[in-house]
Amino acid sequence: MQYGKYTLTEIISADVIRKRIREIAQQLSDRFKDEVPIFIGVLNGSFIVLADLMRAMTIDCEMDFIKLSSYAGTESTGTVRLLKDISADITNRHVIIVEDIIDSGLTIQFLKERLEGASPKSLTIVTLLLKPDVAKIKFAIDYVGFEIPPDFVVGYGLDYQQKMRHLPAIYRLEGNNL
Ligand code: 5GP
Ligand code: MG
Questions:
Q1: Domains of the chain by range and CATH?
Q2: Which of 103, 142, 151, 159 is catalytic?
Q3: Ligand 1, CB cutoff 6 Å, lining residues
Q4: Which of 32, 112, 144, 153 could form a disulfide bond with 37, CB atoms 3.0-4.6 angstroms apart?
């Protein structure tokens, strides 16, 4: 579809995303069934994944957000900055990090180390999307919604220059001077 001067090609439909999120929520609900895990969403991109994931949970859970930045335009800058910290005390809690996408792996690496410093009871990582050909990570990602090729994608919370987050599916972005 045409979006201003950009071409968007749908790669994962809203329906397929919804079903996959439900599967992951069911697995998390089973795994933490006698606990109250706390989701930590990584702003801004993961706010929609977190909202949908949490509403598909069948157990009690809490949530908080952290804001990091490693991207400028369509390129990773190679350094991660903390823009907003969590407010919750996660010591001795079952923590579930929720990411929209893992690309180079820098952000999730930074986040894992930072949250582990607060001594949670467990740390689980959920990401809607993973670019396995790009990601250089030395630890397991517990729940991956979909593996995708190393193209720049938007929609379902993911932006291009802060826009296109509202689009319901995941699209590959194509344009002349991205
Ligand atoms: P990483 O640190 O793994 O390279 O990048 C993680 C962050 O970069 C993601 O949380 C996301 O905000 C941004 N990012 C990486 N790849 C993409 C992409 O294809 N599209 C968009 N919109 N953001 C991306
Ligand atoms: Mg992000």
A1: 17-68+78-148 (3.40.50.2020)
A2: 103
A3: 42, 45, 70-71, 76, 99-108, 152-154, 158-159
A4: 32
